[in-house]
Write a structure and sequence with these properties.
6-stranded parallel beta sheet; 10% strand; 364 residues; 13 helices; alpha/beta; 3-stranded parallel beta sheet
């Protein structure tokens, strides 16, 4: 009897969540940064490789089009080239990298037919076509991504199509539907396809970008007069159903939710609404911190401080709308200085690190 009880106790302990492996402060900070860079290949002297080795960079995003150069000279040229690039990047990481890309379908897909990949229709077209089409598209995207080494897709968009003429969402067909329930259903099917191929998904853009009349890439976007609680419905359903791997914040301002800060920098929105009211305890990532809504309105140090205080776990610097070869080094130094001067408690960094490591462990 005692032996049986001991075995049952051991089994129960094995089922408990394991704490994240111990790490020093610089390692934990590095895991909170996800960044882009320029180049089709890397070697041991590449700045991004040094960021992985020396600063424990947590994740990388690849692009096919360089916004500053106005050309396709960025990271993606062919299937073989992308596969080798990702393999070389991963080989330098002591903690597995989140290798990410924006592959939604339609007008937002970095892995294009011209590079040798399979393309899929927009979210709007897919969801209107039926469940089977959405499920098949998710599986196709997941297979495409995993075959070359990606493990994170910044998709699906779960913004409700409140304003069909919204320049960043509705006009581009990025929203599944104007019906929140249909958005949640199609997002679930798409994510099932990604997850089945071993690729993590990321819901975006919290708390809802579908009613926006302007584009947050270009400046502060105010949805105070257009946003409604219905835009939270897909998040609520997906979180309650256990379908949310990661959630990306929107650079939108809503005075009803926070009279002072946009969602990405708002503790009321991330900690109060997303984590508190909706119960999401997973990884929260910011939208690109180089976007005009943040970069043009706040200094880098203040933006980083506010985002971490708000509850964001990973700060995304796409390094494409603006470019700085040393962006990882600079962001890492800012976060370290904020901890060293007492502006951010080290315990706050530890909480994000633990969530990030749990997410990475889910990849096996």
């Amino acid at each position: 009897m005692r032996t049986r009880l001991a075995v049952l106790l051991l089994l129960a302990l094995c089922l408990l969540p394991c704490p994240a492996p111990a790490a020093d402060l610089d390692t934990m900070i590095g895991q909170m940064i996800l960044a882009g860079f320029r180049g089709f290949s890397v070697d041991k002297d590449s700045t991004i490789v040094r960021d992985i080795r020396e600063r424990h960079l947590g994740g990388i995003i690849l692009f096919d089009y360089d916004m500053l150069w106005g050309s396709g000279r960025c990271n993606i040229r062919s299937v073989t080239q992308v596969k080798k690039l990702i393999s070389d990047l991963k080989a330098n990481a002591d903690i597995p990298l989140l290798m990410s890309v924006d592959q939604e379908g339609g007008k937002v897909q970095r892995l294009k037919k011209s590079y040798g990949f399979n393309e899929t229709p927009s979210a709007a077209t897919l969801c209107a076509s039926g469940d089977d089409e959405v499920r098949a598209a998710g599986a196709m995207v997941g297979t495409n991504l995993s075959s070359v080494g990606f493990n994170l897709d910044f998709a699906p968009v779960v913004d409700v199509n409140v304003n069909p003429d919204s320049p960043a969402i509705g006009r581009l067909g990025r929203s599944f539907s104007s019906d929140p329930d249909r958005v949640a259903r199609c997002a679930t099917l798409f994510m099932d396809g990604l997850n089945g191929a071993g690729v993590l998904s990321c819901l975006k853009h919290f708390p809802g970008h579908g009613s926006a009349g302007t584009d947050s890439h270009k400046g502060l976007t105010d949805v105070t007069g257009t946003w409604s609680e219905a835009e939270l419905s897909p998040y609520r359903k997906l979180i309650q159903g256990g379908h949310a791997d990661m959630i990306m914040t929107a650079h939108i301002f809503n005075a009803h939710l926070d009279p002072k800060y946009p969602a990405t920098l708002s503790k009321k929105v991330i900690t109060g609404l997303l984590r508190g009211k909706l119960g999401f305890q997973g990884v929260v990532i910011t939208d690109d911190m180089n976007m005009g809504a943040i970069a043009d309105e706040y200094g880098r140090r203040e933006a980083i401080l506010r985002a971490i205080e708000a509850g964001a776990d990973i700060l995304l610097f796409g390094n494409n709308l603006a470019y700085d070869e040393h962006i990882v080094e600079k962001v890492h130094a800012v976060i370290r200085s904020l901890v060293d001067d007492g502006s951010i408690p080290e315990a706050r960094i530890e909480r994000s690190y633990e969530r990030i490591i749990r997410l990475k462990e889910s990849l096996g």
